[in-house]
Amino acid sequence: MPPTQLTPFVVRSILDREYWTALAAAPGNAEPIARLRRQADEAPAAPAMPQASDYLAAKRFNDRNRTDQLWQVGRGKMASLVVRRCLDGINPDDPDDRLLDYLWAYLTHPTWTVSAHLPKNDLPASGTPTLDLASCEMAGNFAEIREALKPWMDQQSGTLADSIIEEIDRRVLTPFGRGDFIGWADREARYLNNWLGVCAGSILTACDSLAAQGHPRPEARARAIAGLAKFFDQCFTASGECDEGMGYWNYGVGLACHGLARLSRAELEQSIDMDRFRQIADYPRRVHLFGRTFYSGNDAPFTAGAPAYLVPWLAEAADNDFLRWWATHFGEFSWRNVPLALRSLGAPAMGGGVPDPTHPPVRYLEDQQVAIFKHDRLLSALAGGNNGERHNHNDLGHFLVACDEEWVIPELGNMKYTTDFFGPKRYTYVVASSRGHNCPIINGQAQRVGAEARGNIVQWIADDARPALELDLSAAYPPEANLSQWRRRLERTDDGKGYLLTDHFITDGGNVPITHVIWTLCRPQPAGDHTWKLGPLTLSVLGGAGKTEVIEVDPKSILMRDFTDRTLYRMEFHRASDSAGTLELRTQWTV
User: Counting CB atoms within 10 angstroms of each CB, which of 31, 148, 368, 501 has the fewest?
Assistant: First the structure.
């Protein structure tokens, strides 16, 4: 059972020198604080705030990066300046004008919202707040900055501290507290995602911080807590899976817990369904593959560190030993904003005593229809699900292979977001399309989008020695594919030394072209008839007749975030159904 006590997170004033001195000397903090100080030293004299043309670049040039940098990178510089001031204390001989200028620039900027989230990607409209990820994070950010630095602020200005409260209220808490309709909080469950955890958690952070300073906002606080309960209840699958992927699990759960960490255990248990909370907290264990690598579909990357601002607290709140292990071995500090920095530095050190996780050789994620098999040096996975998942990629039936804890046949991960990625052009980008996955192209057609494109389980054998997953994926393709049936089966080979992937196609009419696609990080080397070496793997593809192409792909050319220092290879096996409309392909890999 979880412990009866869970110490709520408290922001300490800059005047609490005993706390800040102890924090600087705490085990494990020396290197992060050194990095923080370097970042503070390297911060420009004044922040580079985006201009009108930077906001308009989103619709003019499909470039949202100019304002995303303000949100994702620029605020980290301000966080490093804030925490350095807290560590060093008030110095009457150094007013720290650089910090003052950063605070003033961000506080008075026309919007806390990034261009991609503004209506029609236009300039921010005066007097019309937009409550997006960035603005809600900023509300929590400024509230805790004021909580820590108010004595220093008051030495610099008689108006700054009050202006912070005014801006937090005007831009976020007042419209949220009075119940304005907000999409990330009020839409149907199928449209809800990590935004609800991030935004409601940031708002709760702001409310409890202001309450600690004598300025409670009960209406906004109550709505934020209700939103967090809804987040855990509705933004994950029935069995607690995060179909958005581990990166978004970290983000949504992480910032949700920013706010929740300020509650007592009693209020946490009154506000959140704790059985559900523990189920979702356990998701990383269920999808952990090796090292920092997790199974992740859709937009999220497949590597994830343990956020030092989240995992130690969550491990205690959910009594989860995998989270304790993850924090011990792969803890990561973050300075992206002040709440992250304060929680990262203040997190308890997760010492030894937690054994390395031992995962069973066969695992299954029932809601995402994902089978993960691990035997000896090989790890293989096959995924079904549906093409209407959160942050969806059209990737029914894609498979992955790693050897000796290194990807050979990978998931390409996410791309660098463009303005139009979250719109009708999403699936024109390779990484979101089935063309960017280990999925076939049938009669020239990629997979279609929508929950109707879903897999059905034909057979699942949860046998450690001879596991198998077979999926019927016929619904994945549009009518133009002339496809009646596609079944894909992953199983161990008879000799137990590798895996066999069997594809069975039935088409409407004969001679329908089918291209079997395999992406790999290893240059394919011919090794005999129908056989190639992919690094440590021997790969064979049997069935049908036709040519095989190997195409080099620069990850940067398709805007990938991962593997940008590698060369990708796309193997295309061009085949066709026979005159009766059938084709069977057998793909096998061994070490």
Answer: 31
In degrees, rounded to 5, the angle at the alpha carbon of residue 474 between the alpha carbons of residues 570 and 502 is 55
pLDDT digits (tens, 9 = 90+) for 381-436: 999 999 999 999 999 999 999 999 999 999 998 899 999 999 999 999 999 999 99
The residues near 43 (Cβ < 8 Å, ≥ 6 apart) are 77, 78, 80, 81, 98, 102
Locate 63 and state its tokens. 């470039």
Cα distance between residue 37 and residue 31, in whole Å: 10
> What are the C-alpha distances in Å from 392 to residues 190, 284, 427, 554, 558?
12, 19, 10, 23, 17
- CA-closest candidate to residue 269, choices 318, 234, 208: 318
Please enumerate in sequence order all residues whose Cβ is within 8 A of that of 291, keeping only pairs 6 or more positions apart, or say none. 330, 405
pLDDT tens figures, 185-227: 999 988 999 999 999 999 999 999 999 999 999 999 999 999 9
Both tokens of residue 474? 């016929």
User: Which tokens go with 94?
Assistant: 């150094």
What is the Cα–Cα distance from 42 to 29, expressed in whole angstroms?
Answer: 20
Torsion of CA 494, 495, 500, 504, to 10 degrees: -20
β-bridge pairing 399-403 and 370-375: unpaired
Instruction: Tell me the backbone φ, ψ of residue 21, rounded to 5 degrees.
Output: -65, -45
CA distance 582 to 367: 30
Residue 346 makes CB contacts below 8 A (sequence gap 6+) with: 9, 23
DSSP 377: T
- Distance CA(105)–CA(524), nearest Å, equals 53
Please state the pTM of the whole predicted model. Answer: 0.96
